[in-house]
Design brief:
The chain is about 55% helix and about 10% strand. The protein is α+β, with helices and mostly antiparallel strands. The chain has a 4-stranded mixed beta sheet, with helices on one face. The radius of gyration is 18 Å and the shape is globular.
């Protein structure tokens, strides 16, 4: 059984995408980041960086005590190794998936996150910051679009944790000032993943989570998330 500490954000969606694809039993433990629940001592024991998602594997492969894992990329790798799914075992295939997974966690996610912040949530509209992150978003979309030429999925012919990591960050493309029509290979990939039944189930779960707020108007949430 996997205990998933979750809130419906792009990083949270990565993990439900994986769990719904594999059918691995799990329970969701909501962490309302707008209410500051990520700072509670019990959660910090699992995720010392006070960020979700995080998991606790109550039945790890070694048969020992429960294993906790934080950081979305590390969770995807852990679950892929646990199940033997969505991460190749051959040297070259594994290396390709891992480099694109790290590309997402080190670049695509942080840069698009800054795009969201300065475009939608910053109390002051700073043209330099907005332009800088929109440009970087466009560059990263272009990198992914080029990578997908002649490929159904990022690492090649098989769906992998690299795709699961990247897809949720493309979902809010309109809020990032992007048009998928400008990136035809990415657009096809995006639609391909969106049509998967597991993807639909994962996003349907997100719709059941109560307590979400509008960060543009909720001052308490802004204080917890942006350190105000």
């Amino acid at each position: 059984m996997i205990e998933l500490y979750y809130w419906p954000t792009p990083n949270g969606h990565k993990i439900t995408l994986f769990l719904e694809e594999t059918g691995l039993p799990y329970t969701i433990k909501p962490v309302n980041i707008g209410k500051g629940e990520q700072f509670e001592p019990a959660f910090l024991k699992i995720s010392p960086n006070n960020r979700m998602p995080a998991i606790v594997d109550t039945k790890p492969a070694d048969g020992g005590e429960p294993v906790s894992v934080f950081e979305s990329g590390a969770i995807l790798q852990y679950l892929a190794e646990k199940t033997g799914r969505f991460l190749p075992t051959d040297l070259r295939g594994r290396a390709t998936v891992m480099e694109w997974l790290f590309w997402q966690v080190g670049g695509l996610g942080p840069m698009l996150g800054q795009n969201h912040h300065f475009n939608r949530y910053a109390p002051e509209k700073i043209p330099y910051a907005i332009d800088r992150y929109v440009r970087e978003t466009r560059r990263l979309y272009g990198v992914l679009d080029k990578r997908l030429e002649g490929r159904d999925f990022i690492a090649g012919g098989e769906y992998s944790i690299a795709d699961m990591a990247a897809y949720p960050w493309i979902v809010p493309y309109e809020n990032q000032g992007m048009r998928l029509a400008d990136f035809p290979q990415l657009k096809q990939w995006f639609e391909r993943i969106g049509a998967r039944e597991a993807t639909r189930r994962a996003y349907a779960i997100a719709d059941t989570i109560e307590g979400r707020t509008d960060l543009r108007t909720d001052e308490e949430a802004r204080r917890h998330l942006f350190g105000r």
